[in-house]
Amino acid sequence: MSRKVIAIFVISFMFLSNIAYAKETYKIGAIFSITGAASFLGEPEKNTVLMLADQINKAGGINGTPVEVIIEDSKSDETQAVLSAKKLIEKDKVLAIIGPSTTGESMAIVPIMNNAKTPLVSCAAGAGITQPVNERYWIFKSPQYDFSAVEAIYSHLKKQNITKVGIITISNAFGDSGRKALNEISHKYSITVVADERYGPKDSDMTTQLTKIKNSGAQAVINWSVGPGQIIVTKNWYSLKMNIPLYQSHGWGSKKNIELAGKSAEGVIAPLSRLVVWEKLPDKHPQKALLKKYSNDYESRFKSEPGTFGGHAYDAFMMVVEALKKVGPDKKKIRDYIENNIKNWPGTGGIFNMSPSDHCGLDKDAFEMVVIKNGDWEILK
User: Fold this and answer.
1) pLDDT per residue over 189-222, tens digit each?
2) How much is the average pLDDT of 157-181?
3) Is residue 127 within 8 Å of residue 146, measured between CB atoms?
4) What contacts 205, CB < 8 A, 6 or more positions away?
5) Above 80 in pLDDT, residue 15?
6) What is the pTM of this model?
7) How many other CB atoms sit within 10 Å of the CB of residue 283?
8) Contact 44/306 with Cβ under 8 angstroms?
9) pLDDT value for 226
10) What is the DSSP string of 255-317?
11) Please, what are the domains in the chain?
12) How many angstroms separate the CA atoms of 86 and 122, rounded?
């Protein structure tokens, strides 16, 4: 072989290698409820990760390597979430997955993620997603625990000298988890659950359940759901003139809920991430700078607020990004980094402290108690 031919071969090889290198990316999968009943969750989550990926890549990528986000629409369906997870792992060869948007979907893919030894950072709240940790080795989540939200509500009720509550919960995985926490934790705060009502995801009126709560001697009513059920319960509570406060779960954190509930939402209380009230935080608060930038960036691009749900995707995505920066494209090292190194880490949902015994890293102090006043969020003093 002549020197000329060898030179051409070497140059060609280098050229092709450079092309291959240029196309190398860090692939992160995402499963969101972009359509279907939970699309109000998935839309801001999808928008958030697309915006963050653009920002990272425009700044040079992760240590020089572009990040590629592959988003799957679960259509708010557990079976579709399972199919999406398998596709992302087996076909797309992602390094980690963020999402799904709901507790039921997240629970459905836990065994898949564990078997595939691929990190998952869920954007849903149910405690069963990450607990027990010894059976959820590869699983993390960014929203606060549902039992932490219950503790925040009960702490506030105790300060108001309220000792009797009626609870109303949606009959799905999120509602089941919240109902369990509401009943199990109540005695720690000297609170008695005097009424325990349920409703289906497609129910259009909860007057009967709320009337039972009204007649039970309850001093407050707590609704545990996300989606249309929150609006229906709020409107029914208002129409019945129950004259007791209505508390919503931490799934209340979207401005659309205020808009849809209208005047009925006035006075409704909920434990929410500080993202919805960041402008009212002290300038020295450790989350404020991050919350301000994320909120302003999102509103500038999408002409709407991200709500707490977009924030869950922000936290999940940025945990994986930080791990990639530190340890590179190794699934086990990514998992280990999130578990052991996400410490005193300011996110939208709070100051995270992950550990081998806690794959959420937040407690009730991550919340602000927020009330609706004049159609807007206000920190409840």
Assistant:
1) 999 999 999 999 999 999 999 999 999 999 999 9
2) 95
3) yes
4) 232, 236
5) no
6) 0.88
7) 7
8) yes
9) 87
10) HHHHHHHGGGGTT-EEEE-GGGGGGGS-TT-TTHHHHHHHHHHHHHHHSS--HHHHHHHHHHH
11) 21-144+288-362 (3.40.50.2300), 146-272 (3.40.50.2300)
12) 16
Among 110, 143, 96, CA closest to 338: 96
Element (H, E) at 326: helix 307-327
pLDDT digits (tens, 9 = 90+) for 68-85: 999 999 999 999 999 999
Q: How many residues appear in the chain?
A: 381
Residue type present at position 373: K
d(CA 286, CA 262): 33
Distance in angstroms (rounded) separating the CA atoms of residues 217 and 335: 48
* Complete edge-to-edge strand list for the sheet that includes strand 269-272: 192-199, 164-170, 220-224, 246-248, 269-272, 368-373, 376-379
Total Cβ atoms within 10 A of residue 316 = 30
Instruction: Please say if the pLDDT value at position 292 is more than 60.
Output: yes
Local confidence band at 7 (pLDDT 50, 70, 90 cut-offs): very low
